[in-house]
Each structure stands twice: as structure tokens, then as C-alpha cells.
């Protein structure tokens, strides 16, 4: 029981390490929370810091999910604990204790967690994001559609033990994109690679 709680707590703390803020600080770039959309994520870093900073941010955020679930799987096979760790690392990214609970939207971190929990689903989700991003050039729209699709992919691949976790992630991810949804409806959302 103690180990299970520790794994979930560790996942949350790991998720609280913001890749965007760390990268921007090390590369002498402005705090992404003060730029553009104000979101400390790879897409916003791309707009104001360039491709290199955005790629490193993306990798760090994915890696958080990978490490959190990788460590959890090393100590337990309990599906409820693994799902708890996946949700915890995601929540850590959204509401990081180290950065006054002002975090990102969690797309990359959720993908990293799914990559270890259910790689088939993660690849299907990634393919959905890529297809929608190439088709419409809106990162937020691609992320929302990919998130909505994830519980369905869980069901169809038979990996149903993580459906509830993926459903909660999808709801939170949509909520975190509410300003993007408003901008999309108004035709004011920035496209991928578009600079302010």
C-alpha cells in the first residue's frame, strides 16, 4: 500500500516538472506563460522560441509520462495503481506544485504515459493527432479530437482497464483547451508554426 501511494505521488511530482519552463530558462527564452497563448507547452514554445526549443520541450514532456509509468510498472502490475500513476503524472503537468499550479495542457505527457500503458492506443492516438494537424493545421483541434478518440481506441483494442483513466484525461484536456475552442469558433486560433 505504501509503495502504491509513493508511486502515484512520485508520478505527480515528476509531472510537475515543466519541460517548457526548464527549456526556456536554460536557453534564455522568455517564460512561455507570458508569451502568446500563455501555455507552457511545445506548441507555444515553437511560436516564440523556435523548433529546437519546442522539440526539446516536447521530448521532456513525453519523457515524464514514460518515466512515471515505467517506474510504476517496475514495482507493480496492479492496473489501478498504473492508471493512478498515469492520471497523476498528467495532473502534475496540468497543475504543477513547483510552478504555482499553472501548467500546460498535458497532451505530450498523456501520450508518454499511454505509450507505456497501451502502446497500440498511443500510436492510434498519435496517428489521429498527426492526421488532424496536417489536415487543419490547428494543434488544439488535433489534440481535442485525439483525446476524444482515446477511450474508444481503448475499447476497440480490448485494453479496457484504462478506459476510465483515458476518459478523465480527455475531459480535463478538453477543459484545458476551452480558450482554444473559443478561438476556433471565432476563427482566431493560431495555426501550427504561426508566429505572433
Describe this structure in words.
It is a single chain. The protein is mainly α and 196 residues long. It has one domain. The chain has ten helices and no strands. Helix 3 runs antiparallel to helix 4 (51-75) and helix 7 (119-136) packs antiparallel against helix 8 (139-156). The longest helix has 25 residues, at 51-75. The protein is globular and about 45 Å long. The mean pLDDT is 93.
Q: The biggest beta sheet, please?
A: none
Structural class: mainly alpha
| N-to-C CA distance | 49 Å
- Rg over C-alpha atoms, rounded to the nearest angstrom: 16 Å
Shape descriptor: globular
Q: Segments where pLDDT lies below 50 for 5+ residues?
A: none
Mean pLDDT: 93
Order of helices and strands: HHHHHHHHHH
Strand content: under 5%
Helix percent band: over 70%
Secondary structure topology:
Layout lengths: L1 H14 L3 H8 L15 H8 L1 H25 L3 H16 L12 H11 L1 H18 L2 H18 L6 H14 L1 H9 L10
Amino acid at each position: 500500500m505504501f509503495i502504491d501511494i509513493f508511486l502515484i505521488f512520485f508520478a505527480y511530482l515528476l509531472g510537475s516538472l515543466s519541460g517548457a519552463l526548464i527549456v526556456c530558462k536554460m536557453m534564455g527564452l522568455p517564460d512561455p506563460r507570458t508569451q502568446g497563448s500563455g501555455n507552457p507547452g511545445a506548441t507555444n514554445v515553437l511560436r516564440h522560441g523556435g523548433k529546437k526549443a519546442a522539440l526539446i520541450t516536447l521530448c521532456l514532456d513525453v519523457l515524464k509520462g514514460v518515466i512515471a509509468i515505467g517506474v510504476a510498472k517496475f514495482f507493480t502490475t496492479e492496473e489501478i495503481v498504473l492508471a493512478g500513476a498515469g492520471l497523476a503524472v498528467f495532473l502534475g503537468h496540468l497543475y504543477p506544485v513547483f510552478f504555482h499550479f499553472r501548467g500546460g495542457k498535458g497532451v505530450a505527457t498523456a501520450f508518454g504515459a499511454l505509450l507505456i500503458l497501451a502502446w497500440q492506443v498511443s500510436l492510434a492516438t498519435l496517428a489521429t493527432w498527426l492526421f488532424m494537424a496536417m489536415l487543419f493545421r490547428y494543434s488544439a483541434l488535433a489534440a481535442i479530437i485525439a483525446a476524444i478518440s482515446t477511450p474508444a481506441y481503448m475499447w476497440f483494442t480490448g485494453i479496457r482497464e484504462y478506459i476510465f483513466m483515458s476518459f478523465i484525461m480527455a475531459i480535463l484536456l478538453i477543459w484545458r483547451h476551452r480558450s482554444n475552442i473559443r478561438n476556433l469558433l471565432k476563427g482566431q486560433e493560431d495555426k501550427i508554426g504561426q508566429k505572433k
